[in-house]
Amino acid sequence: MIAAVVHGNHVLLVRRANPPDAGRWGFPGGKIEVGETIRQAAVRELVEETGITGQAHEVFAAVDAFDHDEAGLLRQHFVLVAVRCDWISGQLAAGDDALEARWFPLDEVNEAKVALSLDVANIAGQAFDIVAKGFDTSTN
User: Fold this and answer.
1) Is 100 annotated in the active site?
2) Angle, alpha carbons 56-109-64 (nearest 5°)
3) Could you give the 3-state DSSP secondary structure of residue 134?
4) Which of 27, 31, 32 is nearest to 14 (CA)?
5) Catalytic one of 36, 45, 48, 100
6) CB–CB of 73/65 below 8 Å?
7) Helix (H, G, I), strand (E, B), or coil: what is residue 66?
8) Of the N and C termini of the chain, which has fewer Cβ atoms inside 10 Å?
9) Bridge partners (DSSP) listed for residue 136
10) 46 contacts 28 by C-beta, under 8 angstroms
11) Whole-model pTM over 0.70
12) Among the listed residues 88, 21, 85, 34, the one whose alpha carbon sits nearest the alpha carbon of residue 58
């Protein structure tokens, strides 16, 4: 599960500390804990990795993420479910599984000025489109 946070014309990304995509920039996220909903997990992971409190809205995309070893053999296959979240409060600070956390302008993400995880620019664009249209199908 990943939390796609749009705030103004920026999107929140973290530089991953662990596989898959260690060292690359992607959305805050992680595994869902037993008994958690997707939205609850998005909000929890957001706080743990960035110090930001958010409100989860719609689930809007899913991305395959593959973790391969040095020989190219598949170790794990993750399905990352994207949840659009709003910033509520908090000061940005990398924590938990994040090496860094930063707000990126959408154009910088689209131009891939930093090493991004697969589909980050696409997911960010979808999240911005949802915000622009005022669309929200969340059911908490």
Assistant:
1) yes
2) 60
3) coil
4) 27
5) 100
6) no
7) strand
8) C
9) none
10) yes
11) yes
12) 85
Longest dimension (CA), the chain: 46
Measured CA to CA, the distance from residue 14 to residue 24 in angstroms comes to 8
Q: Please, where are the H alpha helices in the chain?
A: 38-50, 106-110, 120-133
Measured distance CA(87)–CA(47) in Å, rounded: 11
Among all chains, which residue has been given the structure tokens 């993750």?
78
Query: In one letter, which amino acid is 125?
Result: G
Token digits of residue 85: 């979240």
Tokens for 43?
A: 């909000």
Q: Per DSSP, what are the bridge partners of residue 54?
A: 87
> Which domains, and CATH codes, for the chain?
2-133 (3.90.79.10)
In angstroms, the CA 21 to CA 61 distance is 19
Q: What is the pLDDT of residues 11-64, one digit of tens each?
A: 999 999 887 788 999 999 989 999 999 999 999 999 999 999 999 999 999 988
